[in-house]
Amino acid sequence: MDARTASELAGIDAIGQAALVAAGELSATELLDAAILRLESARHLNAVITDLFERGRDQAAALDAGGTLRDGSAGPVAGVPFLLKDLGASLAGAPEAMGSRALRTHVAAESAWIVQRYLAAGLVVFGKTNTPEWGNHCTTEPSLFGPTVNPWSPDITPGGSSGGSAAAVAAGVVPAASGGDGTGSIRVPAACCGLVGLKPRRGRTSFAPGAGHGLEGLVNEHALTRTVRDSAALLDVVAGGAPGDPYGAPAPAQPYLTAIGHAPDPVRILLATESPFPGPRTDPEVVAAVQAAGALLADLGHLVESGLPSIDSDAVADAIAVLHTVSNAELHALATAHLGREPLEDEFEPSTWVMVREGFRTTGVEYASAISAVHAQTRRFVAGLGAHDVLLVPTLLTGPPPYGLLDQPRGTTRAFFDVEFATTGWTTLANVTGWAAISLPLGTTSAGLPIGVQLMAPDETVLLQLAAQLEAAAPWAGRYPPAWFGQ
């Protein structure tokens, strides 16, 4: 595979690459060789921390030999190279450190249900991407593997916790990579790296076979992509549940990839630019991007009105903090079981130790109260939207933040999240409520860096339809970062 062909393929999304294979113009092996070439040229980004090239080549060769890629029976992403986040996307037999020094020798015993769905759809897995320890941070700079570099600038974070996946997609290494989202961990990297980042609604995908949920339902898993149609196609791949799941989501009326071919009926959209949490005002450039998106949606026939749903920000922040302390105590237990001893001080990062030690002290009553607060604030949030169908807000309240801001210990877990929410603002409300939310790269700062605009709704279909309308009206596909392959 030559560099010119690899460069040309970098600009083609997953559906487009799969179509080349289906038409017989390229093989899955050739697509993989091109992706590996691009990955090798992007090593300086530190986006991929585990190479799985041989398993990828074996899988691609089996797909090429099987004939399903060209007989019409394969799906719309079959044969496409794909990367897995090193957290929540377990692949049996592959390393799985989850960003933690304590788990640096850990190997996954079984494949996550969502990974099984990816493989069944013909996605060719050939590596795992960098993530902060236990997904705790909305930045990706773990002490174990070092920081991932944002392809837009080495001075700004690619976001987190799916920052390695975002950087790989933004640089053109792959058209899509997996991600997970507990307080914004798909949407924050999407905003920082100029990508499409959809967090599905609660219950849309399964955490089988290893878990029923993550963070009491706050976590959802999906992918980072450059196009809306790729996000829709990948959601079709993973939508559904496994027996015994604690949550369920009603099946869509039609496949998401089909749905985005139709404009939605006019919807009522509530636009808010200021944060639901106390703190600094939203950056004026971000405000302008959200307002421009609102104006564009109004031009497309939707009713856009300004307002602000009501929540008790203290109750939300307290609940998020408590749920994370217990989750990190679980990390300590996992690491202890893996190591056969308790982790040493330098085997967890300082911010993790703050959460772990608070988790040891968290009572059952406090944990139950946090869960109750999540549900109570969900009802208050929904009531505050009134007759509106969709919420339009910033993804981040600022441009992409610098390194060293979102991963530092602050003395308490609540203080840690106060700093995070001063940057992320709205993202965690989608996790608390269980709503679907999507970040779209609709704006840029005066320095040319991406600005994400976020839409939230109870279901994914209307979000993807609106996103497809916005993508057609204000396309971003030709907007490449300085570290794009071949530049």
TrEMBL record:
InterPro entries on file: Amidase, Amidase_dom, AS_sf
Hydrolase found in the keyword field: yes
E.C. number(s) listed in UniProt: 3.5.1.4
Reaction catalysis annotation: a monocarboxylic acid amide + H2O = a monocarboxylate + NH4(+)
Record Pfam families: Amidase
Molecular function GO labels: amidase activity
Annotated SUPFAM superfamilies: Amidase signature (AS) enzymes
Enzyme class: hydrolase
Keywords, comma-separated and alphabetical: Hydrolase
Top-level taxon in the UniProt lineage: Bacteria
Domain Amidase: 30-458
Family: Belongs to the amidase family.
Protein name: amidase
Organism: Mycolicibacterium fluoranthenivorans
Lineage, highest ranks first: Bacteria, Bacillati, Actinomycetota, Actinomycetes, Mycobacteriales
